[in-house]
Write a sequence for this structure.
């Protein structure tokens, strides 16, 4: 190599004494056989001088022979665990050395045969031991250390790490890492044991914490991949190098940062969702969202729709020009969710009609990314139906060619539904609490015992990433996302320039995408409306909402749901409704009675609670019947539910005159509805009334407002309908609702969604 890698230098510089020992040992291991040969020659000369003359030489020869026999036998015995060649080599060497010593004692070193045996025989044996030592070091055989720095360091640390018998050999050296293959003792240790011992390996090798990454070998359970890299290399910000594949397909990986070992973070983000989690200041927005979206907007076949009702323009504002739509209000967010939810079945049908099972590059559809920043706040603001729609988007958008990016600080069940978290790949930035780790990382990352809580927010942009395209060797390796500038102003300017260079308006998109797109210049008019609402003068006193009317609205919704259940399942009983709708038994009985009055079910069979369903499940009119119930409800049930018990002191006989009902009683019992407008036209009347009310400055009202009641009568709908419309407008952020006791008041907050509202009161596209 032209230059030494930082990670190899890290390994070799672990300690100076180890470097010296490693260098000396390369030559030092060859010296012992020759030192023994010289020592034996000196011992033979000394022995001849002392006992080489008669009569002592006779007894010396006998003693040397007995000693030779004993030492040779002992050598054979103590090498029983060696392979046969090693055992024979040791025994023959001992026998030859002892025999030569006996001869030298008798003849001295001057005899030619003694000198020849020492020169040729001794040198041969010494060289044979040198050859064996060199080969053993290079192959990692037996108990010897490996022949490279990584192998040497590991061999001295393995026992302390609990990996006795494991060996490592270097397989790759680059500018930023040293990679090795670890061979574990078969049947004794597995790769998981090595993964859990990574910190002990670092300690034994005297490396900085976080230097070692161990990953399983997918082909062998007794092998693992070991990577040594410098954890300090990503402790400093890494400048953004520019887009990786501008103008290419989104199917190509996104380059969003660098791993600790110097490899690019290449993430193929198609066909999966991603959860980005991290504490405040950890870089999950600027590091995570900016780098992902910044790469996505450079691809010709991708569109990003972003929602952030928490921080308005603070996070995603600089990216606005590159986004196909950016919503920073609840009203805009709900409108986008509903529109996307409605478009997904159309996209899947479009793909199926052209022979596609999933989205593919070149299929003709623009790939969608729905990015939601601080989703916990959005979930808290959404109504139940819109939260359900968002859940269905998560489950269905991948088949339609799309992915979802969710960003939040803690992904436990109190912040988002567990269904959402279970659908996600994971990207986890620094955390403040080790208990939070389980919510932000994948199962295999937890098994590898990653520790993002060690960073907290000291290293913004550092993260762990795990998804379908992440390699086995890198899912537990720290990475650092790119920095867009040294200061906040510099970063925002750089991102704004990048978005301007890759504007959403410059892309050719499919009709589905075009229908959802909102140009960057038209996404801000809501702020004036919102400000006006805040600064509006005090409204006149509001009327008290009649609890009976509120019950009628709620019961109409429940009755429609009950009708849908019995028609779909063709089974009608109080128990079935309680099981499906999870409501009180008394409400189930009331619903059954109302369904019978409406002609949807018949009377019960003798001896059972089950009733026949009179409308078949495949009846074309079933949907209209259900929606009619949702609009009109059941006035009889509403009246009976709030009729006070009669006074026991009052009584009447058969001849007493019947008192005519009051006007209120007559109106409550009225079941014939007047002619109604089309739902879209009726909604338009309400929207126009809201605009007039907003312009007049009286932005707070109740459902019983006289003018609004007149609008309802003109449209031909009942009270239940107006409550449903107001509830839907509240869910969409047009209105905010507050309730104190029986009083529910509505305040006009944001009229922007009404400017492009083309849906009826059931969320369907109006004709």
């Amino acid at each position: 190599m032209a230059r030494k890698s930082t990670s190899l230098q890290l390994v070799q510089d672990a300690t100076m004494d180890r470097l010296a020992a490693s260098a000396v040992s390369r030559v030092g291991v060859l010296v012992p056989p020759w030192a023994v040969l010289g020592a034996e020659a000196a011992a033979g000369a000394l022995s001849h001088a002392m006992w080489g003359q008669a009569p002592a030489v006779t007894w010396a020869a006998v003693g040397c022979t007995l000693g030779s026999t004993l030492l040779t036998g002992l050598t054979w015995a103590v090498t029983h665990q060696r392979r046969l060649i090693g055992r024979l080599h040791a025994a023959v060497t001992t026998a030859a050395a002892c025999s030569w010593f006996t001869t030298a004692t008798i003849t001295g070193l001057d005899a030619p045969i003694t000198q020849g045996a020492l020169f040729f025989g001794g040198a041969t044996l010494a060289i044979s031991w040198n050859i064996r030592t060199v080969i053993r070091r290079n192959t990692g055989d037996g108990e010897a250390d490996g022949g490279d720095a990584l192998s040497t360091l590991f061999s001295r640390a393995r026992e302390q790490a609990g990996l006795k018998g494991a060996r490592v050999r270097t397989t790759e050296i680059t500018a930023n890492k040293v990679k090795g293959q670890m061979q574990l003792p078969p049947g004794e240790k597995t790769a998981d044991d090595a993964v859990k011992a990574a910190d002990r390996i670092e300690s034994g090798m005297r490396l900085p914490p976080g230097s070692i990454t161990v990953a399983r070998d997918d082909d062998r359970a007794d092998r693992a991949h070991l990577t040594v890299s410098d954890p300090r290399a990503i402790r400093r910000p890494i400048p953004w190098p520019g887009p990786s594949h501008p103008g290419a397909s989104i199917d190509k990986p996104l380059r969003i940062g660098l791993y600790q070992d110097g490899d690019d973070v290449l993430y193929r983000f198609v066909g999966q969702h991603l959860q980005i989690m991290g504490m405040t200041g950890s870089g999950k927005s600027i590091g995570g969202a900016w780098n992902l979206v910044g790469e996505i907007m450079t691809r010709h076949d991708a569109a990003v729709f972003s929602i952030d009702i928490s921080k308005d323009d603070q996070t995603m504002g600089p990216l606005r020009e590159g986004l196909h739509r950016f919503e920073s209000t609840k009203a805009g967010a709900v409108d986008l969710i509903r529109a996307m939810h409605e478009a997904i079945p159309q996209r899947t049908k479009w793909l199926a009609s052209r022979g596609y099972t999933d989205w593919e590059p070149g299929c003709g559809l623009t790939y969608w990314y729905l990015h939601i920043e601080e989703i916990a706040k959005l979930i808290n603001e959404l109504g139940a139906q819109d939260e359900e729609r968002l859940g269905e988007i998560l489950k269905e958008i991948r088949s339609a060619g799309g992915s979802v990016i969710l960003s939040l600080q803690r992904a436990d069940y109190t912040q988002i539904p567990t269904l959402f978290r279970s659908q996600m790949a994971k990207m986890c930035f620094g955390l403040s609490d080790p208990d939070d780790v389980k919510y932000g990382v994948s199962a295999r990352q937890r098994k590898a015992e990653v520790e993002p809580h060690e960073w907290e927010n000291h290293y913004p942009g550092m993260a762990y990433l795990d998804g379908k395209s992440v390699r086995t060797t890198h899912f537990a390796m720290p990475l650092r996302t790119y920095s867009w500038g040294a200061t906040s102003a510099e970063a925002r300017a750089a991102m704004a320039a990048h978005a301007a260079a890759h504007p959403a308006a410059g892309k050719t998109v499919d009709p589905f995408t075009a229908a959802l797109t909102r140009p960057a210049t038209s996404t801000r008019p809501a702020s004036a409306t919102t400000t006006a609402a805040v600064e509006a003068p005090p409204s006149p006193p509001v009327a008290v909402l009649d609890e009976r009317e509120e019950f009628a609205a709620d019961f109409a919704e429940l009755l429609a749901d009950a009708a849908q259940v019995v028609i779909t399942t063709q089974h009608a009983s109080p128990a079935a409704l309680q099981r499906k709708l999870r409501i009180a038994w008394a409400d189930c009985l009331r619903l059954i009675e109302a369904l019978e009055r409406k002609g949807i079910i018949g009377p019960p069979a003798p001896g059972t609670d089950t009733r026949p369903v009179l409308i078949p499940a495949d009846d074309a009119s079933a949907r209209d019947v259900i929606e009619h119930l949702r609009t009109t409800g059941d006035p009889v049930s509403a009246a009976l539910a709030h009729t006070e018990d009669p006074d026991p002191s009052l009584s009447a006989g058969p001849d007493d005159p019947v008192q005519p009902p009051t006007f209120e009683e007559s109106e409550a019992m009225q079941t014939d509805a007047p002619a109604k407008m089309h739902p879209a036209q009726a909604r338009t009347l309400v929207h126009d009334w809201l605009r007039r009310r907003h312009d007049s400055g009286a932005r707070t009202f109740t459902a019983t407002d006289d003018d609004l009641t007149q609008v309802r009568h003109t449209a031909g709908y009942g009270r239940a309908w107006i409550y449903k419309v107001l509830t839907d407008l509240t869910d969409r952020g047009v209105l905010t609702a507050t309730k104190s006791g029986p009083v529910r008041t509505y305040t006009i907050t944001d009229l922007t969604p009404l400017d492009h509202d083309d849906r009826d009161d059931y969320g369907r596209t109006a004709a």
Remarks:
- The two ends are 71 Å apart (CA to CA).
